[in-house]
Amino acid sequence: MALPTDAIRVGEIDGLWTFLQAIDWSEPFLIGLIIFHTVCLTITITTRKCSTIQAVYFFTLLVFVFFSENINNLCALHYKKFSKLQYFDSNGLFISLVFSVPILANCLVIVVMWVITSSQMLIKVKRAQLREAHKKQKDKDQ
Predict the structure, then answer these.
(1) Angstrom distance (rounded) from CA 90 to CA 19
(2) Is 12 helix (H, G, I), strand (E, B) or coil?
(3) Torsion angle in degrees (nearest 10) through CA of 2, 78, 93, 105
(4) DSSP per position, 101-142
(5) What pTM did the predictor assign?
(6) In the prediction, which pLDDT does 85 show?
(7) Could you please report the per-residue DSSP string of 32-99?
């Protein structure tokens, strides 16, 4: 089977930027994937105050990443139904780059928000403890 004339050969990929430039970003499934990642980021930001929802959402995102190899294999078998080119290589570079990395970036944002929230709670608790200790010391002195 001959490669399309505009296909990039593996030997021509010498970096991430070259790889990204070789992708036809006008393909409908890639536009859908970009929309999916935009919605994911929106959910990440809007649920920052709801720890239970965000915990379930975080776990769901990690499940997507866990199954990305299976998704890659399924897409490799059926790519002609939704794509002009075969992007889904056996090493999983494409699925990792356009699917897993953005999801993991969302997970990182969630973890950072959890650390910030935890540190803010720790500060509040410590301040309350110091106020209580100061109040007890003040009462003891009188």
Answers:
(1) 16
(2) helix
(3) 150
(4) HHHHHHHHHHHHHHHHHHHHHHHHHHHHHHHHHHHHHHHHH-
(5) 0.81
(6) 85
(7) HHHHHHHHHHHHHHHTTT-HHHHHHHHHHHHHHHHTHHHHHHHHHHHGGGT-SS----TT-HHHIIII
Regions of the chain with pLDDT less than 50: 1, 3, 6
Q: Which amino acid is at 8?
A: I
Query: What is each CA distance from 40 to 68, 107, 109, in whole angstroms?
Result: 16, 10, 11
Residue with tokens 């993991």: 104
Which amino acid, one-letter code, is at 115? Answer: V
DSSP state of 3: P
Place of tokens 């021509």: 12
pLDDT digits (tens, 9 = 90+) for 32-45: 999 999 999 999 99
